[in-house]
Specification:
This protein has 599 residues and is mainly α. Helix content is 71%, strand content 2%. The protein is built from 25 helices and 5 strands.
Length: 599
């Protein structure tokens, strides 16, 4: 069978997901069982993968689904516990003290705080933290999910303390002795220095591309959820949005260059928070002549915007500088925020490999090797899952806010009901992914489906491969549900394509990592999990419809920058990459300058 035919067949499950979820707007609970059957059918009948391997991959997918549901449950439990204590009202009031403008709030919570959580924990945790927090602040749940998904791009390559580079790229390349020799010949005697050099290239590409992420978030917010359905209302805060972007990406780039791939997202976002909050409090860089931008009253929201999680928004009584919570306890702003502070600290402390907590939590493991005699391995590390941190902090809230066990129990039951509605979608989505990426070793002798798909696109792209490299990395992440896994699968492939084209493989692998990060914005099981956190199970299609254009923009711009860098020596500064990047920037700048004329 030709490589192009294999590519088309491998594309079929991906295309089917798009048709059912985005085109026909089916809920994931209805669409993903069919997509699972399509992937399994291709694996068994075309790739001729043994039925036991299909079954083992499906079981691994079920285990990962349970892990995701555990994380979702913990996130919802923390939100419901904060609501039942009255702390959520205090948090909302504290944001109003910084700014009542929802555009400002979404940048601070989703872009900066979400990036910090991504840097410390990764694996979709930002949505589990930022999305319910935005819902608690009074955002429509659909708006909260879309904002939470859009920011899962720039910080992702350095998420979970650098895991996509230190584990993903490392695993993809380190087994190749020729690559190690080539790295040493370039002066990278220590392999970690080679990974760090790739990380710097990743940071450069993200810094240039990710600068517009806050502006995309605000424009999408006002266009989709504003009274006037206006792009211009989101674009009019362009000064503040770009300032927020640079407040995060400049230290992010410096940390990648000086310290390596572990801390760019974490430190960059933390520095950004310290810089931005005082600026927002003073109203600097914001339009001065207008009222703070806000949504309409919840009673006027379309039903599609709201989910099963709708925190109460009644004002709490105030006593001096304290707000009286539902238990009668006077809650200060610091006390109200303390659960999220504890979550952030625990995630950081348990993710740094040099601290003893990392090995301690990792030591509790349940694993099975070569399931059913196949190459599929299963491993569960329950204490290391972010859901464990969420649940632990939720229990601590009983003491922090003096909640009765009965109230906490009602919050737990309410959370379980919300998670149950997401289970059907996830128990088919993740097994489909696992069958797709565990499709090698069949009697037909074909490479696994992701590699077959990538090889076909590489054949079509030819010398223009750098333009498409991030998109392939992104699709790999969207399928696998992880930038780390995408880098594991495709880094060696991307390196080999670069060698065949006689261009710098390090930049091409960096393009893979950047695209893989952006792919999280369209990853189905990430969307399913984020939707569940907001009580929006069944609305996955409309969410992906909003994130796909952003993913395509991000991948295209990163690819054009990469092409410019790689082809500079051949074609000079003015080449196809430069032209594409310039055209995209002119379009964006024109939209900002002409924003008053936009609907």
């Amino acid at each position: 069978m030709t490589s192009m035919m294999l590519c088309l067949l491998a594309m079929f499950p991906i295309v089917l997901v798009g048709i059912l979820l985005v085109g026909l707007r089916w809920p994931a609970s209805r669409a993903m069982p069919l997509c699972y059957l399509a992937a399994s059918g291709l694996a068994y009948f075309v790739w001729q993968v043994p039925s036991l391997q299909v079954a083992a991959a499906s079981i691994r997918g079920l285990v990962i689904s349970v892990e995701l549901l555990f994380i979702v449950f913990g996130a919802i439990l923390l939100l419901n516990t904060l609501e039942s204590s009255g702390a959520l009202t205090v948090i909302r009031q504290s944001f109003e003290g910084v700014s009542r403008d929802r555009r400002v709030q979404v940048i601070i919570v989703a872009w900066l705080f979400g990036s910090f959580i991504e840097g410390s924990a990764g694996f979709g945790t930002p949505a589990a933290v930022a999305v319910p927090l935005l819902v608690g602040l009074g955002f429509p749940p659909l708006a909260a999910v879309i904002a939470g998904m859009l920011i899962q791009s720039t910080p992702v390559s350095f998420g979970a303390v650098g895991t996509p580079i230190l584990v993903g790229v490392n695993t993809g390349l380190s087994a190749s002795e020729p690559i190690r020799q080539a790295a040493a010949a370039q002066g990278y005697v220590d392999w970690s220095d080679y990974l760090a050099a790739i990380g710097v290239r990743v940071a450069v590409l993200h810094t240039l591309t990710g600068t517009v992420v806050p502006l995309f978030v605000t424009a999408t917010l006002t266009r989709t959820f504003g009274r006037n359905r206006s792009w211009s209302e989101g674009l009019e805060v362009w000064r503040f949005a770009l300032f927020n972007a640079f407040a995060m990406t400049v230290p992010y780039l410096l940390v990648a260059w000086i310290l390596g791939p572990e801390f760019p997202s974490m430190v960059g976002s933390l520095v950004g928070l310290m810089i931005v909050i005082p600026v927002a409090r003073r109203g600097w860089l914001l339009p001065r002549s207008k009222e703070p931008w806000d949504f309409e009253q919840p009673s006027k929201w379309p039903a599609a915007w709201s989910g099963k999680i709708v925190p109460a928004h009644q004002p709490a009584p105030v006593s001096g500088k304290m707000t009286v919570g539902m238990t009668g306890l006077k809650i200060s702003v610091l006390r109200a925020w303390s659960p999220y502070i504890i979550v952030a600290l625990l995630l950081v402390l348990t993710r740094i490999r040099t601290l003893p907590f990392y090995d301690l939590l990792k030591s509790v493991k349940f694993s099975a090797s070569k399931v059913m005699g196949t190459s599929v391995n299963i491993s569960i590390e329950p204490l290391y899952l972010p859901g464990t941190v969420f649940i632990l902090v939720s229990v601590l809230c009983i003491l922090i806010f003096r909640i009765s066990p009965a109230v906490f129990g009602r919050s737990a039951v309410k959370s379980l009901r919300t998670v149950r509605s997401a289970s059907t979608a996830l128990i088919f989505t993740v097994p489909m992914v696992q069958v797709f990426i565990n499709s090698s070793g069949g009697a037909a002798g074909y490479p696994e489906m992701p590699l077959a798909f990538a090889a076909g696109i590489a054949q079509l792209a030819g010398d223009y491969w750098p333009l498409f490299s991030p998109t392939i990395g992104g699709i790999g992440a969207a399928i696998a549900g992880s930038n780390t896994v995408s880098n594991m699968m495709l880094s060696l492939f991307q390196y080999n394509v670069a060698e065949r084209l006689n261009i710098d493989p390090m930049w091409v692998v960096a393009l893979q990592a950047v695209g893989g990060a952006a792919g999280n914005t369209i990853c189905v099981h990430n969307v399913v999990a984020a939707s569940a956190v907001a009580g929006l199970t069944g609305r996955e299609g409309p969410i992906i419809r909003k994130t796909v254009p952003f993913f395509l923009w991000y991948s295209a711009f990163a690819g054009s920058i990469g092409y410019t860098i790689l082809m500079w020596s051949t074609f000079g500064l003015v080449n196809l990459g430069t032209l594409i990047a310039t055209a995209m920037l002119i379009a964006l700048t024109g939209a900002i300058m002409l924003r008053r004329r936009l609907p």
